[in-house]
Amino acid sequence: MDEQLPLQEPIDAADAAPDLVDVEYRPLPSPPENGLAPSLERRRLRAYLGLLVSDVVVLLATFFTVSALYFGTLTNWPLLEGGMNSAYMILPLYLTVALYNGTYSRRALTEWQTTSLKAIGGLIVAAALLNLLAFFAKSNAEFSRLVFAVGLLSAGAMMVLVRIALVRLFTRKWGPSPQNKLVILAGGPIFALPHAIHVDAAEHGLTANRENPQSLDRLSKYLRHMDEVIVSCTAEDRAAWSDVLKGTGLHGEVIHQLSREIGAIGVVHHDAADISSLKVSTGQLGIRARAFKRIFDVAVSSAVLVVLSPLMLCVALLIKLEDGGPVFFVQRRMGRGNEFFDILKFRSMREGDASGDRSTAKDDQRITRIGRFIRRTSIDELPQLINVLKGEMSLVGPRPHALGSKAGSKLFWQVDRKYWQRHGLRPGITGLAQVRGYRGATETEAQLTNRLLADLEYMQGWSLWRDVTILVSTLRVLVHERAF
Length: 484
Fold this sequence. Notes:
- It is a single chain.
- By secondary structure, the chain is α/β, with parallel strands linked by helices.
- The chain has three domains: 41-174, no CATH class; 180-281, 3-Layer(aba) Sandwich (Dna Topoisomerase Vi A Subunit, Chain: A, domain 2), CATH 3.40.1360; 287-477, no CATH class.
- It is 46% helix and 13% strand.
- It has 14 helices and 14 strands.
- A six-stranded mixed β-sheet has the order 4-3-5-6-8-7.
């Protein structure tokens, strides 16, 4: 971006008139295309998986060792199998408990005491459940009590030792924190938070301008790969920063005392910096939910692209034959975290509208003959499956709007300050608002409000099953009276 801002700096103005001060113009630093720091999310996932695999190996290895010592053999498998059966049965019970009690969490990567207590607690619960099941199945006699007790104690001790070693390894590679934290100093109290990246908002041209999508896109480049964002700004800017952070899909905080206007969801105390902040946003979905949603998106969109490829090729040929123009219509829209992306559609008009200032009318003369058919049947949306595979969109989510879209005479984000919150998830090809009939042009502010409320409802109550039901419901509204 070639944007420049005037920055006033102290100069030697002894001979200048009191009301005249030179202004030095400096170009803004280019936004980091790959973020200020590498992503730690995949590293954390690999660490969780490594910790889980180590627990499996430790549990099986300790029970095997205890069984071999007890029965005095390494080759007589019928004897060893009697001792190993208890390990085979306790393993799935332990993993189930451990996955739900936070044994494999962020704290597990830096605090061996916490994760060890959770692991041992998981072993105790799993052992109790196994004994309860064995009692009702009348199979207690099939287990060696000595092998079970010694194996369980040995496994617990080994898990603690493994965690001590892994935590030391993780902290040596990543430092004391397994998260990327960004502090944006935007006119509020100046402080230094240990193990965080600090950025001066004025020097980097970062603002919470809700009226300027370009400035939000610039900010998104700095937020890429971040896990937490903390903003220290003036009292007048707190509400604006709060609204912007809620649309990032990240854990966001604004430095401030208790205040109702920014809708804080918690207070965070940073003892190391001797400062407190209000938590105003959080990631919409946990890592497992995001993984399930992404796997579902990739699997379904890939299958649909394969099945519908003959239809899409036929439509592309008809568009080209009608007027010789391009097959695709490409328009810049805003996606997850307020970041721009280029949405793909089959071209249905003779004239392009890059900003979306002019809404499509029912008898719009710009629409081609094939365009009217593919808009009426929603076939024009099929190329967005490519956006899904690229990770820019999801099958289900809030629909991405053109930057110039208006409700009545106002831009969408001017109607309701909660508008930016809908960008906390990837935008969708379809969504809850669409299956409820809120689609097409927005002549009134109420029509946008209906869409916004539906989008926020979807985000607050997401589940994979809900995505499936919305996709099935979408089949009923592919042909719609407002699809023009």
